[in-house]
Each structure stands twice: as structure tokens, then as C-alpha cells.
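Class prep. Write one:
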Amino acid sequence: METNCSERLDAALAAHRSGDLRRAEQLYQIILACNNRHFDALHLLGVINAQRGDFGKAVALINEALQIRPNDQEAIYNLGNALLSLNRPLEALKCFDRVVAIVPTHADAHSSRGNALSELDRLEEALESCDKAVEIHPGHAIAHNNRGNLLRNLNRPGEALDAFETALAVNPNYADAVNNRGCVLQDMGRLEEAADCFDKALKIRPDYFEAHNNKGNVAQEIYHFEEALACYDRALRICPAYSVAHNNRGNVLRRLGRYEEALASFDRAIKLEPDNPDALFNRAGTYQDVGLLDNAIADFERSLDRDNDNWRTRGMCYAAKRHACDWRNYEEDTSLILSETRRHGACVPPWVFLAMSNSPSDQFECVRNWQRDKYPISNSPLWKGERYNHDRIRVAYVSADFHEHPMAWLMTALFEQHDRSKFEIIALSFDRAKNNPIRDRLVNAFDHFLDVYQKSPREIAELIRDMEIDIAIDRKGYTHNCRPEIFALRPAPIQVNYLAYPGTMGSEYIDYIIADRFVIPPEHRQYYSEAVVYLPESYQPNDSQRFISESIPDRAEVGLPERGFVFACFNNSYKIVPPMFDIWMRLLAEVEDSVLWLLEANAAASRNLRQEAESRGIAPERLIFAKFLPHHEHLARLRLADLFLDTLPFNAHTTTSDALWAGLPVLTCLGNTFAGRVAGGLLNAVGLPELITYSLDDYTETALNLARDSDRLTELRSRLARNRLTHPLFDTDRYRRSLETAYETMWSRYQRGERPACLSVSIDQGDTRPG
């Protein structure tokens, strides 16, 4: 019997070594049928199950073997690796500690011990274990590879590359080391080299699904979205249960605007890995994209439960709740983010912060944190200090908003009217917009309209450099779909923050910000990293040819009552905060038969605002929600309202101009930040400064007086009707001349080798002055 077992064991070992796992398993099972306490058969059958990925069964079999021979170093070592694969690193560490206690020179155990310590986030100890492994066995390629991974996690990329190269010197066909080297190169921004590594890893091992995934990540990073999708699909054909690839696939589908497919991919990732905070975060963002805010908030909160210190997630959860007007824990959430930003530089998206803070100092701190973390300046600027000497100043507007968007409504006429004898005007468009009338008009407004949607930030920056652009305008800032990385590469000698983000970019690579003395008073310059360029009346352009539909609906058509005062606010829902809503509800209580007309931003916001009204004693039906309409129809319906009520700390911007252009007076309360002072600046520029209030009490009293004094309101409307045609706010050509004067002054300073400096444009004198 023993002879037969011995012969069968020899045969099983031979089959196992040759890779014939099926034959080896059969022989081990035959041995166990004869002797169910055969140590080698139990142990090695466990190893086969580990090789097949059934780590739970592997652990059970190896533990059974260790009951027979408790101190067998190889069995303990293999048990540790199986436990590590089951994400049980603490138990695995105990196994590896036992092995090295028995055999201190067991290099494999020291290496695997490093992996367990790494999973426990004890990275320095893990590195010491890998160092010990290579000290014992300098040619231990796996230990060098593991060491490289640790050095990468410790943010020591140069040393990590050295470790991977040492592993590859030992074994040039070590696919894991090639792949991991590619990951470090990707971290360093050396994307072409990274892609080459992943290709090489796949040549060595064509079924290496992690390398397919990593190649997809590089393609996604350089905006080659269809290629990225194909890579993730290849990874998933090889390993359908690879949750990482499902998550990454969801991300690229989201960026392609294929939201239903993206949600399906995130669903699969979360089903496979329910506690993955990244997949939950990404699905939440996609739910937000399609307006399912309740779902988005639930996923953001689940993600925070699993990763409570992730401030980006906390900020995005806060933003989703603001969009939904979900004011649960409003004071607590706001206070927490504000205090953490002040104390620790918590990194939340700047756009979120605009609606929570009325402090220019806090906003500056938030932006600087975000910029340093997400968009640091390149160590290799593309523009090297050359002086360009073109016949015309080359100005490039870089944006994703060349379509039906507030930017287009404000700026199209400006683009059309630029002085082509002095300026060559270029658009670099990285949106997914389809053709429509405003897009067609925009394309025709430029000397060159370049669609760069599928180009990476580096490719766009290189294009700006190759075209020798004199002045590059960042028309996205930190708003949706922004790409500040373009400007971090410094592709142009003059780089300008203009109109998109109402505040500082907080970076040394943006030279100027376009403003006026109302939105950035001189005493606030300390909160801006850019030199401030003061235009004479308003920083905001307007299209004086914007069409308003001649067909004005009656009240019943838009859901308004036939009689009664109509307060209106068509701001985005995230700008509505409890203190302002309290005031609006007091106004409804004071003004009989009045209603509040709001934009129906999303179903959750409408539901929550009606509930908030009811909790304040106001019948929910007194809140009327307006559907989205084509812009010219929206402007026409604004004429049905009596008074537009602005928000604080984030004012109406384009929405203020819309209302004023349509003839609707706007009441604002002046804030302390750029975002909270815009409406006041626009009212000043249209000659209605009395509609600027300086406290919420004054705001409330003025709104109440206007609702009760029809003669005064009629006079304001009549004056607005006159002023919109005579005052600077809607004088596109006057604005164009002041902006071009600013551009010429920036360009002249650059030609003289002077640094950017604060400037004041005087349109009447056709010049600029310092300051």
C-alpha cells in the first residue's frame, strides 16, 4: 500500500510540475482515498486549488494537512499566500512570521510577509521584509518586484523603477515586473513608455487581464476613449469577475456620455466588490449626471461609510445634496468642510465651495489646496520664454462650452465682433456637443475652430505651443469638464482666467483674471494668485442681439395663477440655501396670493423644496416649477414674473443678465466673494444700483416694499427697459473694445519682458493704467 502511495505521489508530483493539474488532482484524490491523513496529498491538493483561484478550499485542505505536520514550513507558507488572496492579511502575516521563525533565511516568506504588511498599510515594515528577502537572495525577482510596488506606494517612483529593472535583469520575461514598471511610468506622466510596458507584458502573457486594464487606463488618460473601452472589454473577456475593469469601463462610458451603459458597468463592479468606495463614488457621479440625485446621495454616503476620510467624496456628496435641496445636516456638513479646509487643507472641489462660503480667504484656501493636489505646475513648461512677433495677436479661447450653454449666450457676439485687423481668434473646443444653431454660429465666429475633444490635455497644450498662441484663455476654470492640466503645461506666454470660474485659479501658471472693481474690490486682491485686469464697467460680456421670442405665454400656460405677485428665481438649485429660503417663505407669508416661481432643476429638488415650504407653514403649491425651454422662449416667459430674487453666497450670473435683458428687475444682496458680487456688478452696469442690498434684512425689506408698491416696481421696469439699450451692460461693441485693450496691454508687457501686473482699462481714453 505504502509503495503504491509513494509511486502515485511521484506521478502526481510530476504531473503537477508539468502543469497537468487535472491529472495531479486525480492522483492526490486516489492517495487520499487510501489514506485520508496523507500530508503531502492534502497539502498539494490545497496548492492546486489555490492555483485555480479557489482559495477557501485551499485554506481548508492545507489546514487539514497542518494538523498532521504542524511545523511544515512550506505548508505554512502556502497557507499564508492563500489567506492573503482571501484578503485576510493579518492571518497571513502570522503564517509568514512562523515560517521565518523556523527558517530565518526563507526568502520567499520574507517577500510574502512584505505583501501582507503592505495590505495592512504597514509600508515601511513591508519594505524591510522585502529588503531582507533580496539580502538573502539577491536574484529573487519576485522580491524585487514586490519591493518596487512598495516603493511606488511610498511615492518613491525613481527607486521603484530601479527595483523593477533589477527584477527584469534577473528575469527579462517577468510579466508582472514589466506591468508594474508601466504603472510607475504612468504615475510619472510618461504615458508612451507606460503603454509600451503594458504591450510588452501582454506579449509575454496574452491573457494578462490586469495589463489590458492598465493599457486602457493610459488610453483613457490621453482621451482615446474608444481604445480604452476596447482594452477593458478584452480584460473582461479573460476575467469576467475583474471588478476593477468594470469600474474603469464605467468611467470611460460616462465620459462618452453613454450613461446607461456606465451605470450597468458600475453595478457589476459593485456586485463583485460591494465595499469598493471608488465604484460607489463613480456610480454616484453618474446618477448625478442623469438627475437621479437620491440615488447619487445614497451611493456617496455608502462610499463615505467605507472611506470616511475622503474629502473629495465628502465634497461631492455635499454638492449632490445641495443640487437636491436636501438640507439634512446642512449646518453640520457645511461647518465640517469649512473647518477642515481652514485647519488641514481638505481637498473639496472649488465649485462646491463657492455655494457654501462667503469668505474670499476660505475660497482662496480651498482653491490652492485643490490646484496643488490635482493640477500642479509642470516641471517642463512647453513655452520656453520665446518672443512671438505676429502680424496679429493670436488669442485662443479654450473651452468645452461652445454649444447651448450660458457662455455661448453671453459671448457669441463678442467672438463675432473681435477686430480681425488686430487679432486672430481661435477656438479650441473639447466638448461632445452636437451641431445646433448656436454651435453653427460659434463655428463661424472664429478664424479657426478646432475640435480637440479626443485630444489629451498634453496634446492640446502642444497644439497651443505649435500654433504660437500669444494669449490662451481658460474658459472653463474649475467648472464641469474642465482641463486645467492644459495650462499647467504653460503652452502660451500669456494665460488668462476669464468668465467661467468666478474666483481665482490659485495657480502660478495663470497670469491674469478678467474682472471689474465691483466683483474684485482692490482690497480683495490678496485672495487672487492672478494679476487682476479691471474692465471699466462689467467683467461680463453680453450679446446685444440675443433673440427673445415674440410669443409671450399667458400665466396659465406656465402654471402660474391668473392673479397675484410672482417672485421668481431661476438659479440652479444648488445655489438655494436655507437662510435665503427662509426669507422667501416669509415674503410669501407677508404677500397675499404671491407665489415663488423656480426652475425645475430635478425632481428631488422640487420635492424637497415643497416639503421645506410646508414645514415653514407655506402651502407647497405656492411653489411653481418651470420646465426647461429653448433659451429664446425662456427669456419671453421671464416677462411674466414681477421680481427676480437673487441668492447668496452664490449669485445669479448669466441668469441675472437673462432677467435684465428680458426686462425683469433683479434684487440682490451683496456678498464678499466674486461669486457673491456678480449680480450687484451687473445691476450697477445697467443703472439700477438701488436693487443692490447690503444685508439680508435690507434684502427682505426691499423685496417686501417692491411687492407692495406697484408704482415703484413699474418705474423700475420702465427704467430697465430704457437702460438696457443705453447703458454699458448690453453694449457688446463697447465691451469688445475694452477687452481688446486689455489683451493689447498684456501682449505689450510680454513683448517688453515685463511680468504680469494689475491693470485698469479706460475705454473712453482707449488705454490702460497700472492697478
